[in-house]
Design brief:
This protein is α+β, with helices and mostly antiparallel strands. It has a single domain, classed as Electron Transport, Fmn-binding Protein, Chain A (Pnp Oxidase, Chain A, Roll), CATH 2.30.110. It has five helices and seven strands, in the order H-H-E-E-E-E-H-E-E-H-H-E. Strands 2-1-5-6-7-4-3 form a seven-stranded antiparallel beta sheet, with helices on both faces. Strand 5 and strand 6 form a beta hairpin. The longest helix has 16 residues. It starts with a helix and ends in an 8-residue tail after the last strand.
């Protein structure tokens, strides 16, 4: 078995990894063809990774022009701890106010470890009014978990 095949995560391992990690590096294509890379908090829409950002952000400007993006979620410090998932995707821009608010609630609960109450929703809705959700329409996934090598490199 190749080393590449040894370290590839299963679909279930990828799902668990994405559920536990908190930061996704998002690369879009700028007008000059150069990558524009930023770190984003992320959640899920219809089981696909997603993030939200301001509608006037450079990411959204880039994605309106060219919907292609590549995202990376990684963890680990020592070689045997390195794990990661690269997602090559096209962006689905979600601008429906109700769906954006729902995502805002999800992100708030995920990152602040709270349950959003009805009294909190107007504050999230105010922020959501300026945002767009980007759902990843996945084309390709590459994963690695160096812990699967069992210390043999």
């Amino acid at each position: 078995m190749s080393r590449r095949n040894q370290i590839t995560m299963t679909d279930a391992e990828i799902d668990a990894f994405l559920a536990e990690e908190r930061v996704m590096s998002v690369a879009t294509v700028g007008a000059d063809g150069r990558p524009h890379v930023v770190a984003m908090w992320f959640g899920f829409v219809d089981d696909a990774p997603a993030f939200w950002t301001y509608g006037k952000s450079q990411k959204i400007i880039n994605l309106r022009r060219d919907p292609r993006l590549t995202c990376l979620v990684e963890s680990g410090n020592a070689y045997n701890e390195l794990r990661g998932v690269e997602i090559v995707a096209d962006a689905e821009l979600i601008e429906d106010a109700g769906r954006v608010l729902d995502f805002g609630v999800q992100i708030t609960e995920r990152y602040q470890n709270i349950t959003v109450t009805d009294t909190m929703k107007p504050m999230i809705a105010k922020n959501a009014a300026k945002r767009v959700v980007v759902r990843l329409d996945i084309k390709k996934v590459v994963s690695w978990d160096h812990g699967k090598l069992g210390g043999v490199y």
